[in-house]
Design brief:
Elements lengths: L7 E5 L4 H12 L3 E6 L14 H13 L4 E5 L5 H14 L4 E6 L13 H21 L3 E10 L16 H25 L5 E7 L10 H7 L8 H10 L10 H12 L10 E4 L3 H4 L3
Parallel strand pairs: 1-2, 1-4, 2-3, 4-5, 5-6, 6-7
């Protein structure tokens, strides 16, 4: 316990899923949390997006650990609004920001999706990360840590050319692949200032992004109406370890390490939490 005691950590996409898990785990280890998300439902994804109630629940869980939670509802695609929200939240925590977890993302999978599934995914999964990191950097001093949520999909070749996956998946791969180069390049630029940036690359994570009918159909196109159990057979086949997906907490453990001083000399790292998916694919 206490691996990030006294630190202030900003997390986007904090209302549920991986973001909530990161927030609670970091709070358990002593960090105060700035939790950012936006209640919305654009209709682009088949699964419902976060709600204000879910964001409030994240704050409650953080405060249950005895740490502070500062909540802001803001769209990561809006750089100006995001910068203002971060400035206000950091000031509320006394002007301190030690780590940033750029986690917000969507995956509108399915061949029937319109081209807007591509553009909105790139705007969120790539533009939103750039906005978050760039807006937060002025607050990060020496020893500051940036953690980007990538994906095992972004470390695989191809351009989303899986027919049943559609433009949303192509955009997802593009955004996550581009973030690899972003992390590598910014790590060199931040190095002289003593600041770090790394990425975690999970495989499928047991969240709403994976547990929905559109994903099940994409994973099992051989079935007319696959459910969770049938989809799990396809998920397991992707991995070296005989598991269908990892839990949000499995990613959170890596995030805590990268936000803590334990990783003070680690930068430009791409940490796979992928159950052996990439090595099984020969990568």
């Amino acid at each position: 316990m206490g691996r990030v005691t006294g630190k202030a950590v900003l997390i986007t996409g904090a209302a549920r899923g991986q973001g909530r898990s990161h927030a609670v785990r970091l709070a358990e280890e002593g960090a105060d949390i700035i939790a950012i998300d936006i209640p919305s439902d654009t209709g682009i994804t088949e699964y419902p997006l976060a709600t204000a109630e879910e964001l409030a629940e994240t704050a409650r869980l953080v405060e249950k650990t005895g740490r502070r939670a500062v909540v802001r509802q803001v769209d990561v695609r809006d750089r100006a609004a995001l910068r203002a929200a971060i400035d206000e939240a950091v000031a509320e925590l006394g002007g301190r920001l030690d780590a940033v977890v750029a986690n917000a993302g969507i995956l509108p999978i399915g061949a029937h999706r319109p081209i807007e599934a591509f553009t909105e995914t790139v705007d969120t999964n790539l533009g939103g990360v750039l906005n978050t990191v760039h807006a937060a950097l002025p607050h990060l001093g020496e020893g500051g840590s940036v953690v980007v949520t990538g994906s095992a999909a972004g470390l695989m070749p191809g351009h989303g050319d899986v027919a049943q996956a559609g433009p949303g998946f192509a955009a997802y791969k593009f955004a996550k692949r581009t973030l690899v180069d972003f992390v590598n390049t910014l790590a060199v630029q931040l190095g002289p200032t003593g600041r770090r940036i790394n990425a975690v690359h999970p495989t499928n994570v047991d969240t709403a992004m994976v547990q929905n009918d559109a994903m099940y159909r994409a994973i099992r196109p051989d079935l007319e109406n696959p459910g969770r159990e049938e989809a799990e057979q396809g998920f397991v086949a992707m991995h070296s370890l005989a598991v269908p997906y990892v839990a949000p907490a499995d990613v959170s453990h890596a995030v805590v390490f990268l936000a803590s001083d334990e990783s003070r000399y680690v930068t430009g790292l791409h940490l796979k939490i992928d159950a052996g998916a990439l090595v099984k694919a020969g990568l």
